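A reminder from the course coordinator: this example appears on the midterm review sheet, so study it carefully.

Given structure:
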């Protein structure tokens, strides 16, 4: 598998991305993960996300690996992100966690991945991926 540097820009979309994840996106990821796992596990996953390096994956691959269908352009969150990029502003990279028992999941950024996919399914998405075997952590 070819890992693309977060600095490369092979995408044909007009989406511009921030160099790093917005702080509130970690909070959103923890809120989502706390619905799937207990608070301690969610917190540890977010800690791993913060430590992970930014990499890139294609929008279609992120959705397919996470078992998600792309949201439509008229979804309120996707529309909000579309307005953001239409104003020339950048979007925050996406946060993905990989659980040994459950596979990968988008912890934060589902709307951003969906928007990128709707504009170009092969768009490169900057993201942090945290693989986890939390049970072995102290």
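Designed residues:
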């Amino acid at each position: 598998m070819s890992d693309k540097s977060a600095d490369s820009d092979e995408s044909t979309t007009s989406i511009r991305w921030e160099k790093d994840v917005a702080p509130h996106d970690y909070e959103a990821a923890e809120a989502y993960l706390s619905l799937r796992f207990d608070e301690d596990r969610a917190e540890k996953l977010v800690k791993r996300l913060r430590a992970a390096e930014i990499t890139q994956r294609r929008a279609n691959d992120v959705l397919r690996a996470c078992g998600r269908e792309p949201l439509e352009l008229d979804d309120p969150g996707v529309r909000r992100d579309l307005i953001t990029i239409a104003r020339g502003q950048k979007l925050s990279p996406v946060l993905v966690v990989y659980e040994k028992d459950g596979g990968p999941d988008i912890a934060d950024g589902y709307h951003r991945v969906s928007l990128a996919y709707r504009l170009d399914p092969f768009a490169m998405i900057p993201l942090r991926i945290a693989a986890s075997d939390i049970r072995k952590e102290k």
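The chain is about 40% helix and 20% strand. Strands lie at 54-58, 94-99, 103-108, 124-132.
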